[in-house]
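[step 3/7] fold_predict: job queued, chain A
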Amino acid sequence: MKGVMMSLTDEMNVNPLNVMQAVKGMLTEVEEIVFMNLLFSSSATIRAGNFGLSRREVEKQLKITDDHEKFDSFLKRVNQAVSRYFKVIYDEKKDQIVVMMRVPAKAARSTLSKESLAILLFMFYQQEVLQHEFTLFDQLLNALGHETTKANQRLNLNIDQLKKIGALEEYDTNSNEKAYAITAIGANMFSDSFLRRTVEFSQSNQLNKEEVLKFFKRYNLYQEGTEEL
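[step 4/7] structure written:
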């Protein structure tokens, strides 16, 4: 698993190295170094599960302490500078900052199988839209597979793939049932344009209009003043 964590988009990411020129105009020299450290630490190859840097470490490198305004300003300016190629996210639950690279959906095939993406989309809808706290393994099996040994093994294989890139993690339900929760990385892997296309396609299949509208409104994916999809 190589490179910075992915964020899927419909746009072609031509030359992400150009972003460094934009960074120079918006960040101080110290902030540039911190961004580069974040970029390096967000590599799935380097960190193997512990992606990014803690907020405490970032603030230490920026020489700020408990200054929310300066911390938020840094994240905002970095994202303004690199938004075409990267996305810097703050995982409040883990108190961790991670850099994700925007890649076309087609390019993600070398990292994630279509089954893994289907699992992630299913969990994204359940947890980010319907606000379920977790997703049971059996729910995934019923939705995406069949009750066979081979299906169980394949599902576990794809779940492990998502766990390795930090997109989901195991959730303790205080029972024998296996469950998983989507992480901040997983929740930010899909761009608005990617989600819009997915929902538009799904509308004619399994989702009813009310659910689609709920999805669009939650993520501001519909044009204001219109209710027609």
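[step 5/7] annotate
Residues 112-190 form a domain with the Arc Repressor Mutant, subunit A fold (CATH 1.10.10.580).
Residues 114-129 form the longest helix (16 residues).
exit 0
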